Each structure stands twice: as structure tokens, then as C-alpha cells.
Amino acid sequence: MASLFPPGKGHCRLLDAGAGIGSLSAAFLDRWRSGGLGFSRIELDAFELDRTLIPHLSRTLTKYGCDGDLVVNIREEDFIHAATDSLRGSLFSPVLESYTHAILNPPYKKTHNDSAHRLALRKAGIETANLYSAFVALSVALTAPRGQIVAIIPRSFCNGPYYRPFRRFVLERTAIRHIHLFESRNKAFKDDDVLQENLIVRLERNGIQGPVAVSISTDDTFADLTTHEHPFERILLPDDLERFIRIPTSPEEDAIERSPAIRHTLADLGIRVSTGPVVDFRVKAHLRKTPEPGTVPLLYPAHFVGRSTMWPIENLKKPNAIEHNGETERWLYPNGFYCVARRFSSKEEKRRIIASVVDPSAFGNVPALGFENHLNVFHEDKHGLPEALARGLAVFLNTTAVDEHFRRFNGHTQVNATDLRLMRYPSRAALTRLGRWAREQEHLTQTMIDAELATLIA
Questions:
Q1: Strand pairing of 212-217 and 174-182?
Q2: Which of 281-290, 301-310, 386-395 is the least confident region?
Q3: β-pair type (375-379, 338-342)
Q4: In what order do the strands lie in the sheet containing 295-299?
Q5: How many alpha carbons lie under 13 Å from residue 204 in its C-beta half-sphere?
Q6: Fewer CB within 10 Å of terminal CB in the chain, N or C?
């Protein structure tokens, strides 16, 4: 992280928000003392709220000496409140002078909508749902023009609706200069329960956006580090209103980017995708372990194995059925063919998108189906799809090309309906042809699926 900062000169004002025992500040100061940064003087503000860490933080920083060229301020206070008070010009709090540099490994805890932190951030014009994004946003706000911010944070901010305001805040105020990815979630952070990828990002306050350097390593040894530069248009698509941040892993465009045949939105195809509407704990009174008169199938990810729909499943920990009545009617879809994709993949799973076909023949003569909240459902205005279209859509989503493309903007275990909605697809006719081909095959392998897609889009 310290190596990502470009050399400077003159007076450096360094912010370490959530300093812990001072590891990041130490790395920055090590580089400076070895002549790698060029500053004549550094003033460091190290914020740390945990009192048990303050003695360790103090020992870490005092070894760099205070010869007039280094001033260390250990601030044992809440960074969010100190920063928001300063930004709002509170009469009762000291104003924080703008920083030229910031280095941070912020906490990852979510913030409740009515929490003191959330309210303070909102008053400072920052809307975000997690402490890590709050720390980064505040660091950006406190940094002077052309100032540099380097942070290690979860990749979750790159996509999804929750972080849309944060993405907009950062993209309007900074230029992205460098992104580093760790290919393995469990090697770089093996001591933590990491359910998503973390990345390191360098931002420049008020910078003019240009190409972005993207580096990749398997783990924190950086032994196999590779770096490529990409035009910003590959990072943020010009027509993407959600402002998803995509991270290419190679200089070449992937198969989805290259193909002129994959340019259609779901709206173009007349298809919609929705999160499964049945939230089981909210309708407990209507759930049944096994089917009985007056119930319809309730489908979970466990009901889909490969190309097959398996229902009901004996000894399933989840219910197999839901009552069909006036209260549940609004959560149910008419029986028919649908394509579903799991919302969550397990840690280190080979595939991010796992799609299946809902085959109505598996349920007998039932009028409706319930889709549980852990599924994304592709449908036509809450009705089923033509069989060939449903099968073709599932085949397309299960290709290696789609998986590789999807991973460029999704770095965690969740697949949101918004993510699927913003992807591009082959035409309806092409998906239908793909579905007819799939139906004719006795067995489908990954090699067959990938080869058929290559033929289709060639």
C-alpha cells in the first residue's frame, strides 16, 4: 500500500484513520525514511478509538523519532464524529486541516439507518451503509486537491444498489489511479472469515481521470504480481447509470465484451429478473414441511441439482410447500418454465453464477409456485417463459465466458438481481436456439456449453 503513493515534496499531512497498532503508518514512514517519498516534513494524524491499542500504536510510531521533520498526533477519538464535525464546521470541535495523503484499513461493520454514525454522516452529505465506505468517503472529503488516498477495502462497493451513493461520491471527487486484486479470498486473508474479495485502491482527489493500473496477485506475498493499464471506459462503462466499477483481469477483452451478438438488455428481450419474493421467516404460518392439500411448491436453491428440478426433497431442513391462499397469492407465480439463478455462491466456489431451469412437469398439476428469497427469477411479467427460452437463458448464464465477465464487477458471494439486469445477453432468437439445442442433448458438459456459445456468437 505504501509503495502505491507517488513521490512528493515539501510538507506531507498524513491521515491514518483507524490506525490500530500503526502498521500502515509505519510502512509509509519506512518508505519516507529510506528516501522513497521525498517529503521534507510529515505531520501524521493517527486515529484509534480502541484504548487497548494506543500503547502499541505509540510504541510503533515513536521509533521514527521526532527530529522536527516528523510530528505524530495520536488521536484517541471517534474518526467519524471528528471528521463530520470538522466538515460541518462545528463550533465545539477543532477543524481538521486538509490532508495531502491518507492510508487506511477501515473497519467493516455495517451501520444501522438510525445509528449515531449514520446520522452524523448524513449531516455531512455522505450516505453509506458500512463503516469502511464511511471512512473512505470522509478521507476523500478531508483530502486536499491532488491528495492521494490508498485504502484496503472489500470489493462489495463496486456493484449493487447499497453502495450506489458511495460510488457516486467517490467518482465525482476522485480519479481512480490504481486497483490491486487478490485472486484468492482465503489465502490473502486466511486469518479472517472473508466472504468476499478485498482490494487495494489508490484515489487522487480532484484528479483528471485517465487510464487505471490494475495489478493482481494470488495472495499477500505478491510473488506473482502482474500489472496492466486499462482505459477508464473498461472500468466504468459510459452508459452504466448504476456506475458499476469493473476490474479487468487481463489486457484483452473477454468473449462477452468482444461479441457484437451479445448486446441486448433483458428489457430488449422482454424478460425481467426479480429476487424471489417469499421471505420464509415472514410467512412462517403458511409454510409446510411436505406438500398437502391447499399448498403449492416452495422452491429453494437446494431443489435444483444440475439440469434437474428435484421436488419435494425428503428430510430437507427447509419447507417444501407454502399455502396457496389470499394472503400468499401476491408472493406466488403461475406454474411454468422459469430460469433461476442462486443469489449466493459458497466461499471459493468455482462458479459465481449458477443457473437452473424450473420445469413444471416436476410439480404435477399445481396452479402456482413459490420462489424463496435466495433465488433470482427470470420471468415475463411474473409469468413463465417459453421452455426453449428458459433453457437457453440457463445455458448462457452457465457458460465460462459469462462467469469470467461477471467476476469483473462482482467480487463477493452474492449475485443480485440488479447485477443480472445490467448484463448484456444474446438476442431472444439466439437464446431460443440455444435452448432447443440443450433440450436435444442427453448430457451437457461445460465444454459442450462453452463450445456451443462460441458457435452461436461467432
A1: parallel
A2: 301-310
A3: antiparallel
A4: 287-288, 321-323, 295-299, 368-371, 332-334
A5: 15
A6: C
The pairing of strands 295-299 and 368-371 is: parallel
Closest by Cα among 233, 225, 234, 228 to 213: 228
Ramachandran sector of residue 72 (left: φ over 0; alpha: ψ -120 to 50; beta: rest): beta
Number of C-beta neighbours around residue 253 at 10 A: 12
Rounded alpha-carbon distances, angstroms, from residue 416 to 70, 111, 156, 391: 47, 21, 11, 20
User: pTM above the 0.85 mark?
Assistant: no
Residue 239 Cα distances to 242, 264, 410, angstroms: 9, 13, 18
**Three cell numbers at 447?**
465444454
- The rounded distance, in Å, linking the Cα atoms of 391 and 307 is 9
DSSP 326-383: TTTGGGEEESSBEEEEESB--TT-S-S--EEEE-GGGT-S-SEEEEBTTEEEEEBTTB
d(C-alpha 100, C-alpha 8), whole Å: 10
| Residue 208 neighbours by CB distance under 10 Å | 6
Which residue is associated with the grid cell 471528521?
A: 83
Q: How many CA atoms lie within 13 A of 296 on its CB side?
A: 20
SS3 content of the chain, % helix, strand, coil (to 5): 35, 25, 40
Q: What is the pLDDT of residues 30-83, one digit of tens each?
A: 999 999 999 999 999 999 999 999 999 999 999 997 678 999 999 999 999 999
For the record, the C-alpha cell of 437 comes out as: 439445442
CA dist 353 → 20, 247, 432 (Å): 37, 17, 20
Packed helices 446-457 and 387-397: angle between N→C axes, nearest 10 degrees: 100
Instruction: State whether residue 451 is helix, strand or coil.
Output: helix
- Of 189, 198, 193, residue with least CA distance to 156: 198
| Distance from C-alpha of 354 to C-alpha of 376, rounded to nearest angstrom | 10
Contact 137, 169 (CB under 8 A): yes
Q: What is the pLDDT of residues 301-347, one digit of tens each?
A: 999 987 778 999 999 999 999 999 999 999 999 999 999 999 986 54
- Higher local confidence (pLDDT), 15 or 443: 15
Cα–Cα distance between 392 and 431 in angstroms, integer? 5
